[in-house]
Specification:
Mean pLDDT: 77
Strand content: 15-25%
Family: Belongs to the GrpE family.
Subcellular location: Cytoplasm
Strand order of the largest sheet: 3-6-7
Radius of gyration: 57 Å
Protein name: Protein GrpE
Shape: elongated
Organism: Bifidobacterium pseudolongum subsp. globosum
Low-confidence stretches: 23-39, 43-50, 55-60
GO molecular function, one term: unfolded protein binding
Helix content: 40-55%
Length: about 220
């Protein structure tokens, strides 16, 4: 490594006159000048940039009026006809629903009436079977099988048999053929079932014919 020579270093320094004339810039000034040049370049580039021309959005077109000077336009006439068709369709739909409901009720009523007609024709035979059972009459196996099938057949169609000794007397379900005073009775009850009653749902086909035990006055 060469030795530091003070005289050579001093000779290499610029003169004061050169510094005053601005021929040589100090290192600090050179560093500051570089950012300024960069800023100038950026500003020139920014000035040189041009934004593309943007086309203005097309104005929205207003909807066509339904009427002009009190007269319907084609669009207004179409809307009117559509509303009329919709109203007619809704009316027809409501009428169809009512018709369907009436038809279902009529079919169910006709079905019940058919069952009632068959049951009414069979009531005398059913009463005879009940009397044989009540009085302890002997029935052979074949007769018992036929009676059981008849009972199941009516149960299948919703026919319910009612009328039991000891139940409360109900004038809407029982037909009292005789009232018998009973000193032990606190209210009117069924004492004897002469003929059983039959019903389908809430509809009584035949009221049960009974003897009523009434409280003694």
């Amino acid at each position: 490594m060469s030795e530091f020579n003070k005289d050579d270093y001093l000779n290499d320094l610029p003169d004061a006159d050169e510094l005053a004339a601005g021929q040589v810039a100090p290192e600090g000034d050179a560093d500051q000048a570089e950012p300024e040049s960069n800023n100038d370049a950026q500003s020139s580039e920014a000035q040189g940039e041009q934004r593309p021309n943007e086309e203005p959005a097309a104005p929205e077109e207003g909807e066509e009026a339904d009427s002009v000077d009190g007269k319907l336009t084609p669009l207004g006439q179409a809307k009117k006809e559509a509303a009329e068709y919709l109203e007619a369709l809704q009316r027809e739909r409501a009428e169809f629903i009512n018709y369907r409901n009436r038809t279902k009720k009529d079919m169910e009523r006709a079905r019940q009436q058919g069952i009632i007609d068959v049951l009414a024709a069979e009531l005398p035979a059913l009463d005879d079977i009940d009397r044989i059972r009540e009085h302890g009459g002997e029935m052979d196996e074949s007769f018992q099988a036929v009676a059981a099938k008849i009972d199941k057949a009516f149960e299948k169609f919703g026919v319910e048999k009612f009328g039991v000794k000891g139940e409360d007397f109900d004038p809407t379900r029982h037909d009292a053929i005789l009232h018998k005073p009973d000193p032990q009775a606190e209210k009117a009850t069924v004492d004897t079932v002469v003929e059983a009653g039959y019903r389908i749902g809430d509809r009584v086909i035949r009221a049960a014919r009974v003897v009523v035990a009434s409280p003694q006055e």
